[in-house]
Amino acid sequence: MCTVWGFVFGEFHGDSFFWGAQNLFVGCSFVGSSTQKSDVLPDGVVGGLASSKSGPSRFRQPTSVDELRQLGRKTFSENTQKKYAWAVNLYRKWWEQWVAMKGSCETQILWSNIDNLDNLSKGSFCHALACFIAEVKKLDGSEYPGDTLYQIAVSLQFFLESKGFAWKLIDDKEFLMFKNTLDNTMKQRARDCVGKCEPTAHISLEQEEKMWADGVLGESCLDQLWDTLLYLLGLNFALRGGGAGA
């Protein structure tokens, strides 16, 4: 009489899990003639084996390892895939230039090739991402706005998720240096008005004196007083307050 053991096993690499192999082993255990099938196999197995020999199956064929790996990954829209493909290509070009310039003197970046995810570690990748965000520029040499830098970070996150890596570049403590670098660089770009922001137009002292002289500001009538009050409140509270908090 035969007993059946089924084994499905996998392996871990980094923080991602994928199926390594699936094997079915059939071993024979010879027992006495008085032993019944129900004493050897769990309840329901004997009936299941018997019923599977005839008639159509209610289940699909066994899922292959490749199919299960594909189903277990997070999927994104075509537009999102194009965005993270652009971000990955940008990181790849930066990495290739960095290695060409520095050679093998910086092992953390040397081992942060995004095309070799199997050998990627959080520590090395965090260091490389921080350098990447601080150094990346447009083709014409100008700086990326802070919003674009954030979109690059999010796109790289999506790329890792599409490959089965459950790393959170913004939330995981192992990526704290990258998060702080991104945050500080975005603030600096905002202060430098890189992107859509426009420098605040200030009224010079000469212009203000001219408004007093021309009667735009004053206290001779209610409308003039109202305009003067509005101007002074905006000058002393709104503009200066915003400058102090920036």
Question: Which keywords apply here?
Answer:
3 domains, mainly alpha
- Tell me the span between the first and last alpha carbons: 81 Å
Rounded radius of gyration (Å): 33 Å
Query: What sequence of helices (H) and strands (E) makes up the elements?
Result: EEHHHHHHHHHH
Q: Uncertain spans, ≥5 residues at pLDDT below 50?
A: 1-33, 240-246
Largest sheet: 2 strands, antiparallel
Q: Strand content of the residues, in percent?
A: 5-15%
The figure for the number of domains is: 3
Mean pLDDT across the residues is 76
Going by helix content, strand content and strand pairing, the class is mainly alpha
Number of helices: 10
Describe the structure concisely for a colleague.
By secondary structure, the chain is mainly alpha-helical. The protein has helices spanning 37-40, 45-51, 65-71, 78-102, 107-110, 122-135, 146-162, 176-191, 205-213, 222-245, and strands at residues 2-13, 16-28. The protein has a two-stranded antiparallel sheet.
